[in-house]
Inverse folding.
């Protein structure tokens, strides 16, 4: 009897220790609200005191239900990093939708790439290394690459976006976007939009619908750049106005339907071939339900820009990093007092 | 020992079935109490900043003109200290200051917009929105009104066909397909009268004009140099008909109207000069001054006519000045003076009805008008009294019919003359009795 109780002692000791460990692990595994002081004021903001474990992302996940919105907390509190014990205000609304400040307003650069090449640059083809360097520059310098939806939310004065926001787009639908750009963007977690002209799909150096579908499923936004990539503003030689008009109708309506059918996703934006447009094209885009369209004007976009003339900055093959930096203007100075 | 083992067993089973969440739930109260107790030991870590700290922040933002952020911090302070009337008063006062500033910038923006100073207007609307992020009208200007429209609207008239409208709007009947397409009109159908159509505006490249615009521009420039202004107008207007945004043609048109105005001014034909100046855009250098000079000349003319008691002519000249410049107080005063002087003459001639008719055309707030109206009524009363006394004299002389006529005149001038009214009734009943006696 004595022997058995002696034998039971080490077993119960082990069980006791295991239980304690379990309890401790359970208590500390979850971020307990009680470690911080949390005051919810109206439905507008919460005041919290940060703990050692907190990051902007974890706070955004907890209070804004979106870990990607950590920047909103950082920007509101005018801080770049967190320290334990620091009191923070978490805004529960977009506090500056247009990015307006007394000294000016926010602008968003939209970068426009075409082709990529392994080694040799050309006018429209950027090398793999240059593209990598540009993406690294964006990451290292605190730029937020936003989606097309976020950009449109900003332009609709509906959604606030990070102060240093930039959007990435590719034109035409070259296979090098899939082969070279896709893995690099994936590595950095950057979203991008690809404007395809549907007659090009499946051609020699173009992506196939299979590639496009894969990119779409990976979170890339696939939008349209007409059917044949004709200049929408210029009448061809001996083309009558009626022929031109019918051609416009085809260039605008056909690819939208095709992309939506192939990808089962809405196509509501268009990039003008050669970046050129006119009133008739815009009127037709509106009639067909397009939400926005993109030119090439080498300007950044404030929220009040005409959504059918969103400007993009073309990034050509022989751009060094300095030239690239010049395309990243995120603020326009103007005294707003 | 057995009891302890049972607890361990329960714990393991609980973890097995519910995981950490279950364990936390089970020990929730114990853990909470432990943490609360623990937090009390480390004051400062979990306490929120006091309201006064947020007030201080608000004050700093307010100084830097970041009023929305200041308001945000004030609202936090107000929530932390709900009993403070001072904070709530400050919130109300800041809200009012924000509304005032936003309102001021918006009004200035609208003024700029109306005078086509679009960049200045945009800046004002942006400032409005910075102060008041929910200002819908400022947002509407920024997002819609400040962007050029792709459409123009057209109200269909009786018997209008698509080809008529296309010819009128695009100078090309074959663009009727465009109108049908954008207004969902089926092929072969015609638009219903009164319908508002949206017509996309086309660039000049799609409105091929039957003229060569650069040649026509050179022609107009040469005509301007030769001072053949009416011809400059004809050519520039023709260019604008096909290319309404052609800046050079607009400049030439403005220059021609301005020069015609100057020529007419030198011939002292100021009304026609003003008409010509008014066709020039207000931004054109010197045109506002030229209009003002011509108006001043016309005012002098009106004053001269007034001195010469040529009231009708003076009124006509001053009236035309008001057509050009509605707020011209000198012309308005001159018109009032002309009416008053005419009324005064009529009062002297005892023509009160006509005098009142003239005075009714003048500004009732004008002092001379008020005085003249008062004079009319005083004179009418005096005159009524004269007729009344004449009536009495006739009555005493037993001239009853003449007495009634005089009292009726007195009553017409002063309807409140009770004695005249009473005497008329008495005289009439006496006349009746006399008739019966006879």
């Amino acid at each position: 009897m004595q022997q058995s109780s002696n034998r039971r002692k080490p077993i119960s000791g082990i069980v006791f220790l295991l239980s304690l460990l379990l309890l401790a692990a359970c208590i500390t595994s979850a971020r307990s609200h009680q470690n911080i002081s949390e005051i919810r004021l109206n439905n507008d903001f919460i005041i919290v005191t940060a703990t050692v474990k907190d990051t902007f992302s974890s706070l955004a996940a907890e209070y804004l239900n979106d870990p990607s919105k950590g920047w909103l907390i950082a920007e509101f509190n005018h801080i770049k990093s967190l320290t334990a014990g620091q009191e923070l205000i978490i805004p529960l609304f977009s506090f500056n939708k247009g990015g307006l400040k007394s000294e000016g307003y926010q602008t968003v650069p939209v970068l426009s790439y075409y082709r990529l090449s392994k080694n040799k640059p050309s006018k429209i083809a950027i090398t793999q290394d240059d593209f990598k360097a540009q993406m690294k520059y964006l990451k290292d310098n605190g730029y937020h690459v936003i989606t097309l939806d976020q950009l449109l939310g900003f332009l609709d004065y509906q959604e606030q976006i990070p102060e240093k926001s930039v959007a990435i787009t590719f034109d035409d639908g070259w296979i090098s976007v899939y082969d070279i750009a896709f893995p690099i963007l994936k590595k950095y977690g950057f979203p991008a939009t690809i404007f395809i002209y549907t007659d090009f799909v499946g051609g020699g150096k173009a992506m196939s619908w299979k590639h496009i579908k894969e990119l779409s499923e990976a979170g890339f936004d696939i939008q349209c750049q007409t059917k044949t990539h004709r200049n929408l503003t210029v009448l061809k030689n001996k083309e009558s106005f009626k022929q031109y008009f019918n051609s416009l109708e085809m260039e605008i309506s056909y690819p939208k339907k095709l992309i939506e059918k192939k990808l089962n996703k809405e196509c509501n934006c268009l990039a003008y071939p050669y970046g050129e447009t006119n009133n008739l094209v815009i009127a037709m885009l509106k009639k067909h339900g397009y939400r926005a369209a993109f030119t090439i004007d080498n300007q950044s976009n404030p929220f009040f820009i005409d959504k059918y003339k969103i400007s993009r900055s073309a990034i050509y093959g022989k751009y060094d990093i300095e030239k690239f930096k010049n395309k990243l203007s995120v603020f326009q100075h103007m005294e707003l007092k | 020992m057995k009891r302890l083992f049972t607890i361990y067993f329960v714990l393991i089973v609980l973890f097995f079935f519910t995981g950490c969440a279950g364990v936390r739930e089970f020990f929730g109260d114990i853990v909470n109490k432990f943490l609360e107790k623990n937090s009390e030991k480390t004051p400062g870590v979990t306490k929120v900043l006091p309201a006064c700290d947020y007030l201080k922040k608000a004050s700093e933002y307010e100084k830097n003109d970041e009023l929305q952020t200041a308001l945000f911090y004030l609202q936090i302070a107000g929530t932390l200290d709900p009993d403070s009337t001072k904070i709530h008063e400050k919130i109300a006062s800041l809200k009012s200051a924000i509304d005032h500033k936003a309102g001021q910038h918006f009004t200035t923006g609208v003024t700029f917009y109306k005078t086509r100073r679009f960049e200045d207007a945009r800046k004002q609307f942006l400032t409005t929105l910075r102060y008041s992020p929910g200002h819908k009208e400022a947002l509407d200007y920024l997002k819609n009104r400040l962007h050029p429209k792709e459409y123009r609207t057209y109200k269909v008239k009786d018997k209008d066909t698509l080809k008529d409208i296309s010819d009128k709007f695009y100078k090309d009947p074959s663009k009727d397909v465009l109108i049908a397409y954008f207004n969902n009109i089926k092929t072969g159908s015609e638009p219903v009268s009164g319908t508002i159509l949206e017509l996309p505006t086309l660039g000049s490249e799609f409105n091929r004009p039957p003229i060569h615009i650069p040649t026509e521009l050179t022609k107009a420039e040469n005509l301007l140099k030769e001072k053949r202004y009416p011809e400059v107008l004809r050519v520039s207007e023709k260019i604008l008909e096909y290319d309404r945004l052609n800046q050079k043609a607009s400049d030439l048109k403005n220059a021609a109207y301005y020069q015609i105005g100057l020529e007419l001014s030198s011939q002292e034909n100021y009304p026609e000069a003003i008409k010509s100046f008014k066709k020039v855009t207000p931004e054109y250098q010197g045109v506002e001054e030229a209009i003002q000079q011509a108006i001043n000349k016309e005012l002098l003319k009106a004053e001269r006519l007034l001195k010469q008691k040529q009231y009708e002519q003076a009124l006509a000249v001053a009236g035309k000045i008001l057509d050009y410049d509605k707020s011209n107080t000198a012309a308005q005063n001159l018109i009032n003076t002309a009416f008053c002087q005419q009324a005064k003459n009529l009062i002297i001639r005892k023509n009160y009805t006509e005098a009142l008719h003239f005075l009714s055309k003048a500004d009732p707030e004008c002092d001379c008008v008020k005085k003249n109206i008062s004079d009319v009524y005083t004179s009418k009363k005096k005159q009524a009294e004269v007729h009344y006394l004449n009536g009495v004299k006739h009555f005493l002389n037993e001239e009853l019919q003449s007495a009634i006529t005089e009292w009726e005149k007195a009553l017409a001038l002063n309807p409140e003359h009770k004695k005249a009214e009473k005497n008329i009734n008495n005289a009439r009943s006496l006349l009746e009795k006399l008739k019966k006696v006879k």
Observations:
- The first helix of chain A runs from residue 2 to 29.
- DSSP finds ten helices and 16 strands in chain A.
